[in-house]
Amino acid sequence: MSENTHDKLPIRMLHDRVLVRSDTPEGERRSGGGILIPATAAVGKRLAWAEVVAVGQNVRTVEPGDRVLYDPEDRAEVEVRGVAYVLMRERDLHAVASERVSVDATGLYL
After folding, report:
1. Neighbours of 19 (CB within 10 A)
2. Which domains does the chain have, with CATH numbers?
3. Is the CB of residue 70 less than 8 Å from the CB of residue 87?
4. What InterPro entries does the annotation carry (predicted)?
Protein backbone atom coordinates (compact mmCIF):
# COMPACT_ATOMS: atom_id res chain seq x y z
CA MET A 1 0.00 0.00 0.00
CA SER A 2 1.37 3.38 -0.91
CA GLU A 3 1.97 6.11 1.65
CA ASN A 4 -0.74 8.33 0.17
CA THR A 5 -3.49 5.71 0.25
CA HIS A 6 -4.89 7.00 3.53
CA ASP A 7 -4.88 10.58 2.17
CA LYS A 8 -8.04 9.74 0.24
CA LEU A 9 -10.00 7.89 2.92
CA PRO A 10 -13.74 7.84 2.27
CA ILE A 11 -14.37 9.12 5.78
CA ARG A 12 -14.78 12.52 7.44
CA MET A 13 -14.02 12.74 11.14
CA LEU A 14 -16.45 14.61 13.38
CA HIS A 15 -16.00 16.84 16.44
CA ASP A 16 -12.88 16.03 18.50
CA ARG A 17 -12.19 12.62 16.95
CA VAL A 18 -8.75 11.57 15.70
CA LEU A 19 -8.06 8.63 13.39
CA VAL A 20 -4.57 7.13 13.66
CA ARG A 21 -2.63 4.30 12.09
CA SER A 22 -0.33 2.41 14.42
CA ASP A 23 3.40 2.48 13.67
CA THR A 24 4.03 -1.02 14.96
CA PRO A 25 2.02 -4.12 14.22
CA GLU A 26 0.74 -6.03 17.20
CA GLY A 27 2.39 -9.30 17.99
CA GLU A 28 6.04 -10.15 18.28
CA ARG A 29 8.53 -7.34 18.75
CA ARG A 30 12.25 -6.99 19.38
CA SER A 31 13.97 -5.46 22.37
CA GLY A 32 16.73 -2.88 22.00
CA GLY A 33 19.24 -5.73 22.31
CA GLY A 34 17.59 -7.72 19.51
CA ILE A 35 15.79 -10.27 21.69
CA LEU A 36 12.51 -11.47 20.17
CA ILE A 37 9.60 -10.87 22.59
CA PRO A 38 6.53 -13.02 21.82
CA ALA A 39 3.09 -11.43 21.62
CA THR A 40 1.95 -13.48 24.62
CA ALA A 41 4.65 -12.08 26.94
CA ALA A 42 3.24 -10.06 29.82
CA VAL A 43 4.57 -6.52 29.96
CA GLY A 44 3.62 -3.45 31.94
CA LYS A 45 1.33 -0.85 30.52
CA ARG A 46 2.93 0.34 27.28
CA LEU A 47 2.02 3.36 25.24
CA ALA A 48 2.32 3.23 21.46
CA TRP A 49 3.16 5.67 18.65
CA ALA A 50 0.88 6.18 15.68
CA GLU A 51 0.48 8.52 12.71
CA VAL A 52 -2.55 10.81 12.55
CA VAL A 53 -4.40 10.25 9.28
CA ALA A 54 -7.60 12.28 9.85
CA VAL A 55 -8.97 14.76 12.40
CA GLY A 56 -12.37 16.24 13.19
CA GLN A 57 -13.14 19.94 12.84
CA ASN A 58 -12.77 20.62 16.60
CA VAL A 59 -9.28 19.10 16.94
CA ARG A 60 -6.79 21.86 17.73
CA THR A 61 -3.46 20.27 18.74
CA VAL A 62 -2.70 17.73 16.02
CA GLU A 63 -3.02 17.51 12.26
CA PRO A 64 -2.65 14.69 9.72
CA GLY A 65 0.94 13.52 9.49
CA ASP A 66 1.79 14.09 13.17
CA ARG A 67 3.09 11.22 15.29
CA VAL A 68 1.18 10.81 18.53
CA LEU A 69 1.52 8.74 21.68
CA TYR A 70 -1.58 6.90 22.89
CA ASP A 71 -2.66 4.02 25.13
CA PRO A 72 -3.35 1.02 22.87
CA GLU A 73 -5.62 -0.56 25.50
CA ASP A 74 -8.07 2.38 25.41
CA ARG A 75 -9.00 2.29 21.76
CA ALA A 76 -11.70 1.60 19.23
CA GLU A 77 -10.53 -0.04 16.03
CA VAL A 78 -12.06 0.42 12.62
CA GLU A 79 -11.14 -1.12 9.29
CA VAL A 80 -11.33 1.02 6.16
CA ARG A 81 -10.47 -0.54 2.79
CA GLY A 82 -8.71 -3.44 4.52
CA VAL A 83 -6.49 -1.24 6.70
CA ALA A 84 -6.89 -1.16 10.50
CA TYR A 85 -7.09 2.27 12.15
CA VAL A 86 -7.62 3.40 15.73
CA LEU A 87 -10.33 5.95 16.51
CA MET A 88 -10.05 8.11 19.64
CA ARG A 89 -10.83 11.50 21.12
CA GLU A 90 -8.19 14.21 21.03
CA ARG A 91 -8.05 14.21 24.85
CA ASP A 92 -6.95 10.54 24.79
CA LEU A 93 -3.65 11.47 23.13
CA HIS A 94 -0.73 11.69 25.55
CA ALA A 95 1.90 13.44 23.41
CA VAL A 96 2.68 14.67 19.92
CA ALA A 97 6.07 14.56 18.22
CA SER A 98 5.98 16.67 15.11
CA GLU A 99 8.40 17.96 12.51
CA ARG A 100 6.40 21.19 12.31
CA VAL A 101 7.42 22.24 15.84
CA SER A 102 9.59 25.37 15.94
CA VAL A 103 13.39 25.10 16.17
CA ASP A 104 13.50 26.26 19.79
CA ALA A 105 11.00 23.62 20.97
CA THR A 106 11.88 20.09 21.96
CA GLY A 107 9.48 18.54 19.48
CA LEU A 108 7.74 16.42 22.10
CA TYR A 109 4.85 17.69 24.21
CA LEU A 110 3.87 15.69 27.28
Report:
1. 22
2. 3-102 (2.30.33.40)
3. no
4. Chaperonin_GroES (IPR020818), Chaperonin_GroES_sf (IPR037124), GroES-like_sf (IPR011032)
